[in-house]
Amino acid sequence: xxxxxxxxxxxxxxxxxxxxxxxxxxxxxxxxxxxxxxxxxxxxxxxxxxxxxxxxxxxxxxxxxxxxxxxxxxxxxxxxxxxxxxxxxxxxxxxxxxxxxxxxxxxxxxxxxxxxxxxxxxxxxxxxxxxxxxxxxxxxxxxxxxxxxxxxxxxxxxxxxxxxxxxxxxxxxxxxxxxxxxxxxxxxxxxxxxxxxxxxxxxxxxxxxxxxxxxxxxxxxxxxxxxxx
Length: 229
Description:
alpha/beta, Rossmann fold, 6-stranded parallel sheet, two-stranded antiparallel ribbon, about 15% strand, globular
């Protein structure tokens, strides 16, 4: 119960229910821990737990189990490769996970989210959407497409009271794609702050934006240390 100034019970404190895709490592894991430490109930789904965000059927099953109960949906799952040749060999998976894994749930947000007029969907984009790339052109193109999906579905779902926000991080220290990838120092030279983020740092920004920025809707928060300034 919530206790008022005079000690009377004023109501039941309801904690939010959160869905996070790609929750077992990196940014997703940090987000799961951040929401849980603030008292939220978190449901995590990922390929490692048998859920493929790029398959419509998996979303249908999730709706059957948890439909219209989430206050926050965070579409975070992503894969990448960091050379043009590796990316070409992995292209189907990149499109399936990074693009369709956003499109399918956005099409179903009204079936996933609590119809309370305060539900928020966060989508993990990337600062690479704002420049061309000779190393991973498909990943950059897909993340550009994700931004367009966010803008389009903002207008589609406005009548249902669901807000959608994209968080576009710059260089972040994660094991994206299960690779032992280290950010080259020469790339960090292009970042005015001369460093990368860690997932816990990004999760703090992400959490604040989703929970506190009540008028933010249909926008992209680029958090890249000034790389694209």
